[in-house]
Amino acid sequence: MKAEKQIEASFIEKLQDLKYTYRDDIRDKASLEANFRAHFQRLNKVNLSDSEFARLRDSIITADVFTAAKILREINTFKRDDDTPLQYTLVNIKDWCKNEFEVINQLRINTENSHHRYDVIILINGIPVVQVELKSLHITPKRAMEQIVEYKNDPGNGFTNSLLCFMQLFIVSNESNTYYFSNNNQEHFSFNADERFLPIYQLADENNKKITHLREFSERFLPKCTLGQLISRYMVLVASEQKLMIMRPYQIYAVKAIMDCIEQNRGNGYIWHTTGSGKTLTSFKTATLLKENPDIEKCLFVVDRKDLDKQTREEFNKFQEGCVEENTNTESLVRRLTSDDYRDKVIVTTIQKLGLALDEDSKRNQEKKRKGELTYKERLAPLSDKRIVIIFDECHRSQFGENHKAIKEFFPRAQLFGFTGTPIFEENATYKQVDGTVGSYVTTRDIFQQELHAYTITHAIDDRNVLRFHIDYFKPDVSKIATKAATIASKKAVVETILSKHDAVTNGRRYNSIFATASINEAIEYYDLFKSIQEDRKNSGDENFKPLNVTCVFSPPAEGNKDVQQIQEDLPQEKADNEQEPDKKKEALKRIIGDYNKQYGTNHSINEFDLYYQDVQKRIKDQQYPNSDYPHKNKIDVTIVVDMLLTGFDSKYLNTLYVDKNLKHHSLIQAFSRTNRVLNDTKPYGNIIDFRSQNDNVDEAIALFSGQDGKKAKEIWLVDPAPVVVQKLEKAVTELEKFMESQGLQCKPEEVNNLKGDAARGEFINKFKEVQRLKTQLDQYTDLKQEEATQVEKLLPEDTLRAFRGVYIETAQRLKEQQGKNSEDKNTEVEQLDFEFVLFSSAIIDYDYIMSLISKFTQSEPKKQKMNRDQLISMLCSSSNLMEEREDIIAYINTLEAGKALDEKAIKEGYQEFKAEKAAKEMATIANNHGLEPEALQSFVDEIINRMIFDGEKLSDLLEPLGLRWKDRTKKELELMEDLIPLLKKIAGGREIAGLGAYE
Question: What is the pLDDT, as a whole number, of residue 433?
C-alpha cells in the first residue's frame, strides 16, 4: 500500500507534467508572501515599498471567505504612500489562462495558536487557491473531508490570518477515490447532526462516467486553463447567502454545449437534466455568460406561471444581486426588450407575457390601434432581425406549442434552448384533455432539434444527487359494498391508512407530505374526511392520538382575476373543475382558508389567494426548524392538492407523496420527484403510497425516462423490497454478534463497555452504525408484512436496540473527542471513523418533549407510571439530540420524586436552577483546586461567555495574585485550562469560543 508521501510525490510530478512550476522553496508564511509580492508587482507593473506591501497584504487578508473570493475576481483600489490610488488585480481576471500556476507542498503556517502543515497547495499568481489533502488508501475520503472542516474551523489555522484566506477549492484523495468541494464561511462549511451543509463532488465525463483515480482526475480537472476556467467561470458567488458554489460537471457540460451551439450558430437545442439537478443554476450561468457576448442582443429566460416567474427571478437575483428586474406586465416587458441598458440584456419573463406582446389581436393591442399608437409588436420590430437567445424553463409545457410559431416567425434569427427534466418523446406526446378529447404535444425534439446534454434521473440517483423511491401500492378492498357507499368507504379507508402510516413514512413527523387527488371535489371531500375522522378520534379519548395538521390548496374560480387565470394555465384539471358549480368550490376554499387562519394565526383571504398559496409553500419548507424553535402547531403534515405543487416545487423536508389520482409518463415522474431531495441518512428515499395500483404506469415511466435499459434503471430507481432489507439487517446483526464473540464477549449492550482498546471500540461503531442505518430504512417501510415485522423485532427487541443506541452514543462521544488530537501519535482506526450521529437523532425527543415526560413522571405514583425513571433515562441516552445536556438532565431526573407533581413550567425552571447550581459548584471546586477566588474565576468565565472570545491576557490577570514566575505561571495556566475547557464548552452549548483552540 502506498504511503501518503509516495502519493504526494507522484501527484506533484503529475502537476509538473501539466506545466506547473514546482516551488520547493516555499515552505512557510514569509516565503509564501515574498512569492506573492513578486507576482503582484509583475502583474500590476509596480514596485511597492515594504510598508506599502505590508498595508496591501493586511488590507486583502480577511477571515470572510466570501469577501476574499470577491477580491480575487475584481479590480481593487489601494492608496500608496504618496496618497496616489493604485488600481490592481491579484490575478489576470481577463484571461485566467495567462496567470502563472505553481505548486507547493508541506507548507507550515505557524501562529501563536496553530502549527498546521498542508499537503499540497496550488498557487495562481502566488495566491493559494486549491488545497489538496492526500490520504493513504485505508483512510476514507469522507473522514478526510471532516478533518478539513475541523482543521479549517480551528482558530488560528492560517485561513483567517494569511494568504490562505483566498482558498477556493479543496481536493481530497486517497489516490483511488477523489472528491472536491468549495471553500465557504463556517455556516456553509460543516457537517452536523441535522444536515450536511457541504456539497461534495466527484468528477465525471460528458456521459457521466466517474473519474475518481487521482491521475485521471488531474489530467481532466487540473490542466492550468481548465482550473482557471473553473474558478473564474464555473464558480458562483451567491450574494444573498454569502456563499460560494461550484457547478457540478454535468452543469458545466450543459453550459458549454449551449455556448458552443450559439458560437457556431447551429440552431436550437435542449438540455435534459432531471428534476432536482439544479437547472436554475445552469440556466443562470448560461444567461450571465451570454450577457458578456457582444453578438447577442437579448437573452430571454422564459418560464410558465406567475409563481415560477417570481421564484426564478428570486433565484437569479440570489446568485447575483439585482441582475434581473421584475416584469409586472407586458408593457414593462416590451420596454425592457427595446432598452439599450446593459442591465436589460437578460430578462426573466413568462411565456404568457411574451405571447401577448406578439399577439396583434390581443385586447391591449387592439386598444392601441384604435388610439393610433404603436402596438407592442410594432415597437418590437427593430429586434426582429437581431440575434436573440430564448431559454425555456420546463420546455414541454402545453402552452409552448401555441406560442412557438409566433416566436419563430417574429424572431427568425433567434436560437431557442429548452431545459427539461422530463422530455416529450413520441411515446408520451399524446394526452387526454379534461373534456375527453385527445390532443397531442409536439415532441421536445420537434421544437428544439437536438439534445445537447443529458443527465437523467438514473444518473442523479446513481450519484446520490437525488434519492431513490419506495413505492407502496395500497388499494382499499370495498368490493362487497354498494357503489356509492363503496366510494365513501374507499375514501375513508384511504384517510385511515394515511393516519396509520404517516408517522412511519415521515420518520416521526420529521418530514411532511403531499396528497395528490383527482379533482377539486375530491380534494374537498378528503379535507372534510380528515377533519371529521380526526375529531372522532380525539373525542374517543385516545390519549396516544396526535392529530395531523392537514391543509388543502387548489385555485379558486378565476372570475376575471388575471393572477388566478395565469396560475390556472398550467392546471388543466383545476381550470375545468372550476367551471362546474364555481360557488360551491369558492365557499369550500373560503372555509379551508378560514381553518388555516385559525390553526396558524394568519389572516389570508380568497381574494389574495396567491399569498395563501405562498404561505403554504413556506410552511412546508420550514419543517427544518427543530421543535423547540418551531413547534408542531406551526407545521403542515399533509397538504391536499389537485394539480398544484406537483411540478417545480422543491423542499428537502417533503419526503412522502400520497396518490389518489391517475398519473402517467412525465406527470408521474414530476409528481414523484417532489419527494426525493437529498438531506441526510434519516431520509433514505422518497416515499410514494399509491392508492390506485399504478404499477404498470410506474414501469412505463421508468423505462421512458431512464435514458437506458429499463430493467436496470428500475433497480437503480426503486429501493430494495422489504424482505431484502430485512435480510441485510439480519446479516448486519450477525456481523455484530460475530465481532462481539471474537472479543470474547456476548452480544449485549452492557458488554460493549468491556471492549479492550480503541480499535475494537471503533469496529463496534462501524458494525452497529450499519445495523442502525438499515433499521432507520425499515422503520419507514409501510409495506412490511406482519411476519417480517416479527422477524425484525426478534432480531432486535426495542429495549435492546435502545440500549445499544445509548452505548453507541457514549462510545462515539469518547472516540470523537480523540480525533485530531495527539498529532504525532494518531490512532489510525479512530481518525478514520465517521460517526453519523444524525442516524441516532430523533424528531420527537427534543428538549420540550423530555421536559413534558419528566413532568408526567412526577405526576404519577410509581405503580401507575407508563414510563419509570430507568426507561426515561434509557430513552434520553438512546438519542443524539441532547448529547451535550444528557448528563445534567439525568442527574436532575434523579433528584425528583415520582408522585410529587410538578407541571412542565416548574420542571423547566427547576432544571435551569439545577444547572446553575451544578455549574457554580464545579466552578468553586476548580477555583479551590487551583488556589483562586471563586468570584474571580466566575467573573473571568462570565466575560468569556458574554463575548464568546477567550482572551489570554485576562487569564494572566486572573493568575496574577498567585505571584508566580513565568515558567510556573505557564504550567499553572495549562493545568487550569485542562479543568476549565470542558466546563466552558458545556456552558457555551455548542457555540464556538474564539481563541480557545490554542489550549486544547
Answer: 47
What is the rounded distance in angstroms from the CA atom of residue 655 to the CA atom of residue 677?
8
783 contacts 724 by C-beta, under 8 angstroms: no
Q: Per residue in 102-136, pLDDT tens?
A: 999 998 876 554 567 788 999 999 999 999 988 87
Beta pairing class for 469-473 and 203-204: unpaired
Is residue 61 within 8 Å of 158, Cβ to Cβ? no
Interatomic CA distance for residues 779 and 772, integer angstroms: 10
Cell numbers at 501, concatenated: 402510516
Q: What is the pLDDT of residues 881-920, one digit of tens each?
A: 555 666 777 777 777 766 676 666 777 777 777 777 777 8
Which residue in 376, 391, 385 sits closest to 332, CA to CA? 376
DSSP-derived letter for residue 386 is S
Nearest alpha carbon to residue 414 among 392, 436, 429: 392
Short-list 951, 947, 945, CA closest to 988: 945
pLDDT at position 990 is 60
Cβ–Cβ contacts within 10 Å for residue 963, how many?
8
What does the alpha-carbon distance between residue 76 and residue 69 come to, in Å, rounded to a whole number?
12
Cα separation of 320 and 340, whole Å? 20
Question: What does DSSP assign to residue 97?
Answer: G
pLDDT for 960? 79
Rounded CA separation 810/745 (Å): 19
pLDDT number for residue 525 = 95
pLDDT tens digits, one per residue of 805-858: 778 777 777 777 776 654 444 556 666 666 565 555 554 445 555 666 666 666
- Which residues neighbour 281 within 8 Å (Cβ) at sequence distance 6 or greater? 236, 245, 247, 251, 319
Integer Cα distance of 412 and 384 in angstroms: 7
3-state secondary structure 160-207: CCCHHHHCCEEEEECCCCEEEEECCCHHHCCECCCCECCCCECEECCC
CA distance 728 to 170: 35
DSSP H/E element including 395: none
On whether the CB atoms of residues 269 and 449 are closer than 8 A, the answer is: yes
What's this model's pTM, rounded to 2 decimal places?
A: 0.74
pLDDT at 434: 47
Among 656-670, 679-693, 962-976, where is mean pLDDT lowest?
Answer: 962-976
Run of H or E residues at 121: strand 115-124
**CA 823 – CA 827 distance, rounded (Å):** 9
Place of cell 434552448: 417
Helices 306-319 and 609-621 meet at what angle, rounded to 10? 50
Q: What is the CA radius of gyration of the chain?
A: 32
**Sheet architecture: strand order including 654-660:** 469-473, 686-690, 654-660, 512-517, 638-641, 550-553
> What span, in angstroms and rounded, lies between the C-alpha atoms of 124 and 39?
9
Give dist(CA 337, CA 331) in Å, integer: 10
Q: Which grid coordinates belong to 824?
A: 504525532
Alpha-carbon distance 687 to 683, whole Å? 10
Q: Is the distance from CB of 834 to CB of 147 less than 8 angstroms?
A: no
> 414530476: which residue's cell?
670
What is 439-505 written as a DSSP string?
EEPPPHHHHH-SEEEEE-HHHHHHTTSB--EEEEE-----TTS-HHHHHHHHHHHHHHHHHHHHHHH
CA 483-488-493 angle, 5° bins: 115
Whether 999 shows a pLDDT value over 70: the answer reads: no
Strands 210-211 and 203-204: antiparallel
Give the confidence band of 312 by pLDDT, cuts at 50, 70, 90. Answer: low
Q: How many whole angstroms separate alpha carbon 643 and alpha carbon 553?
A: 9
Summarize pLDDT for 711-739 with one digit per residue, the tens.
667 777 778 888 888 899 989 999 998 98
Contact criterion met (CB below 8 Å) for 75 and 87: yes
Tracing cell 490592481 back to the chain, one arrives at 88
Chain CA centroid to CA 659, Å: 26
